[in-house]
Design a protein that fits this description.
Layout lengths: L10 E4 L2 E5 L6 E6 L4 E4 L5 H15 L5 E3 L5 H4 L9 E5 L3 H4 L2 H13 L4 H9 L6 E3 L2 E7 L2 E7 L9 E5 L5 E3 L21 H12 L4 E3 L8 H15 L4
Parallel strand pairs: 4-5, 5-6, 6-7, 11-12
Antiparallel strand pairs: 1-2, 2-3, 3-4, 8-9, 9-10, 10-11
Helix pairs in contact: 4-5, 6-7
Length: 243
């Protein structure tokens, strides 16, 4: 039986393109449905959350998730990745330094617990953490069938040292920004942020999507190019970066 995006609590952004805002940390997950292919953008904060996303995606796309793009290595975006065993996993170039380092994996687990994830779930997800199989250094086109494609773009550094964005071309393009853009609060700059490069990363997003795109923040409501431009200027002032 056909199910609509709205019936599953997802927001439809374009034909075959949608997103859901997860409870807890208001993290956005994106989905791009093709012909026999489905691209998920980020994986949630636990294996249980990943499993729920996988089930939703299968119902909406009519196929299992075949491609998984991780926008940046923070717990609420990556700890569910092992719930997608059939998916080829992508991340920004250099991300392997996080996934391969035992200390970094421990920090992901501890950060999840600090934010309220059950320690047992955090342990399970950190132990099963999936290393991305392909890293994106510039722009990579992923064909999804029936003339549809998604473009993965290494947009950072900024929010982290390894920020990946996803563009879905169309009459009105959709750009999944990860946490390079946040709408529900001031952008969060943790110890792995690269503040001096963050405004330039938003310039790259604007170049990628153009003035008429729908920009999907990692947290919060969808925004337009004017919002991204204003956040870019605010970040430049906040971090003392010259235009």
């Amino acid at each position: 039986m056909t199910v609509t995006w709205e019936e599953l609590g997802w927001e439809r952004l374009a034909d075959g393109v949608g997103r859901v805002r997860l409870p807890g940390w208001d993290c956005t997950i994106g989905l791009v449905a093709g012909a026999g292919a489905a691209l998920l953008v980020d994986a949630g904060s636990s294996l249980a959350e990943g499993a729920r996303l996988r089930a939703d995606a299968a119902r909406l796309a009519g196929t299992d998730v075949t491609l998984l793009a991780l926008t940046h290595p923070h717990f609420d975006h990556v700890l569910g990745a092992a719930a997608f065993p059939a998916a080829e996993v992508f991340a920004a170039a250099g991300s392997h330094a996080v996934y391969d380092d035992a200390r970094e994996r421990t920090e992901l687990r501890e950060d999840a617990v600090r934010h309220g994830l059950d320690p047992r779930e955090a342990d399970e997800a950190a132990t099963a953490l999936v290393r991305p199989g392909r890293e994106v250094a510039d722009v990579l086109a992923l064909p999804l069938g029936r003339g549809r494609e998604a473009l993965l773009a290494n947009a950072g550094p900024g929010h982290t040292a390894h920020d990946l964005a996803v563009l879905v071309p169309g009459e009105r393009p959709v750009v999944f920004c990860g946490d390079l853009v946040e709408e529900s609060g001031e952008p969060q700059a943790g110890p792995d942020a690269v503040p001096s490069r963050w405004p330039a990363a938003l310039d790259r997003l604007l170049e990628l999507g153009g003035p008429d795109a729908v920009y999907v923040p990692g947290h919060g409501a969808v925004v337009d190019a004017d919002f991204v431009r204003a956040q870019r200027d605010a970040l430049a002032r906040r971090f003392g970066v010259s235009p």
